[in-house]
C-alpha cells in the first residue's frame, strides 16, 4: 500500500467485506470516495450535511474518527432508524487515522 493511501473495508449486504485502497492526499470525504467506487449513495445535498442520504454505520474504527459536529448530529437525528454508530460519510474526511475503518451503507442488511 502506498504511503498516501489507507484501507477502508465496506461490508456488503451479504456480510462479506470489500477492501478498498483510498487516497488521503486528495481531500476527499468518505462519501466522495464511495461514490467514486460506484456505491449506491445518493448524496442529494452534495456533501453539505443537509440530507443524511450518505449515512454509513461504522462497524470498526469509530474511535479513529473526529468528533461529530452539531450539524451532523442534527441531521442524523432526523433518521428514523438511527444507530449509535451511524455517521454521515460526507463529514468524514479521509485521513491516515482512518486506516482499517469498517463501514456499511446505512439501511443495507
Secondary structure blueprint with pairings:
Elements: E1 5-11, E2 17-23, H1 30-36, E3 55-60, H2 70-76, E4 86-88, E5 102-105
Parallel strand pairs: 1-5
Antiparallel strand pairs: 1-2, 3-4, 3-5
Keywords: 2Fe-2S, Iron, Iron-sulfur, Metal-binding
Protein name: Ferredoxin
Family: Belongs to the adrenodoxin/putidaredoxin family.
Structure description:
With 109 residues, this protein is of the alpha+beta class. The protein is 13% helix and 25% strand. The protein has a five-stranded mixed sheet. It has one domain: Ubiquitin-like (UB roll) (Roll), CATH 3.10.20.30. The mean pLDDT is 95. One of its GO terms (molecular function) is electron transfer activity. Its cofactor is [2Fe-2S] cluster. This is Ferredoxin.
Quick structural gist:
The chain has 109 residues and is an alpha+beta fold.
The radius of gyration is: 13 Å
Largest sheet: 5 strands, mixed
Structural class given helices, strands, pairing?
alpha+beta
The percent range for helix content is 10-25%
Fourth-level CATH superfamily = Beta-grasp domain
Q: What's the total helix number?
A: 2
CATH topology: Ubiquitin-like (UB roll)
In the CATH hierarchy, the architecture is: Roll
Strand fraction equals: 15-25%
Low-confidence stretches: none
- Widest sheet, order of strands: 2-1-5-3-4
Query: How would you state the average pLDDT, rounded?
Result: 95
